[in-house]
Specification:
235 residues; Immunoglobulin-like; five-stranded antiparallel beta sheet; alpha+beta; 4 helices
Length: 235
Amino acid sequence: MTRQGTAPLTGAAGSCERARVRGLASALAAVATAGFVTWACGSLSEPPTQPEPTQSVAPAPPVEPNPNPTPTPVLGGPAPKATPTPEPSPTATPPPASPSEGAAECGSPTPPELSRITLNVHMRGGDGWVLDSTPLVGPDATYCAAIGFTDGRSYCAVRPEGNPQRMACELFVTGRAKDTGRSGPTWRRDGSFCTGRASGCENIAENQYQVLAYASGTYTACGKNGVCGTIQVDK
């Protein structure tokens, strides 16, 4: 449609005008295309984003092995056995005395074999009575007279009371106690050794020829040859 007041271009002038318009449009398209390519290439030419470097961590020091590792318990396994407590060894039986032990110290005359042991209650009082024993030899009136008993007795002690040889002479004829190993007879109450209050009797530490009687019973004192003295204690 022709605008009012403007004459249309004809002839050579019209052709030039149309060519100019087409040229301007082509130039504008080229410029637009070039701008797009430039933007696209500019975007492609940008370097990619680099990841941040990872911070290095110093290696942990090596763990020293435990020289005494605790064993890992096994579920359901047997419990470890406890170390058994050693039991005290029983008291050793004293070795028997030599048959001639005490003979040399006893001197002459040498007493004959033990034949009797007399027992008596030496002291009453408190919860423990003191029982006493005396070894006797005989019958040998000649021996008894030779050591100082001039009353005609045939059974006598190995030496008179107070004689310094008496202890050695009693060891020679009596021997040593089977339970304590000391010079003197072996004491028993109702057939059992005198080991303390629980047993009913107890050997006197200072004198094997005496015993403490805590309870009633039959008390015996025996020498090495099996000769025994007996006393009944009723408390």
